[in-house]
């Protein structure tokens, strides 16, 4: 079975935020939460790069390792999901994630911040695929429909790639060979504990 992964080619990202907007609209993500965001590194300086960031669905997910109630689980496709029914909102996953993916959905008085929210790779949650309950808690389940995450499909420069890890690694290798250089497959080694050799 394919191991689903994300790859952001920082040499192509133009910081248009189409990935962010597509995610918010597809899943009706509440105001103040961004399951995906674009971060600019070295803003205004030589070597400036923009990177589309979200949950990378790590091979050995640190969020799952620190969760005291084991609400995180990995699907057969390698997608890291969580159960909002089990989540207690402790925030350990927020501190453990190197990509800042888990977020509190609200800020309330007296410390009530709710259950954590994160990118689902457009794969829904533990409820039945396509059910109303699944959509209300996690958003659209595009993976069950045979589609890829909408953020990657809406990327106009194809900077953000999603899908079978072997296929997207090959696409990146071909780009590096054609360009003659690569600034690195952002987050790949941290998330998947491997490098892409060209």
From TrEMBL:
Record carries keyword Oxidoreductase: no
Keywords of the record: 4Fe-4S, Iron, Iron-sulfur, Metal-binding
Matches recorded under Gene3D superfamilies: 3.30.70.20
Matching CDD domains: DMSOR_beta_like
Residues annotated as domain 4Fe-4S ferredoxin-type: 4-34, 78-107
Database matches in PANTHER family: PROTEIN NRFC (PTHR43177), PROTEIN NRFC HOMOLOG (PTHR43177:SF3)
Protein name: Formate dehydrogenase iron-sulfur subunit
Organism phylogeny: Bacteria, Pseudomonadati, Pseudomonadota, Alphaproteobacteria, Hyphomicrobiales
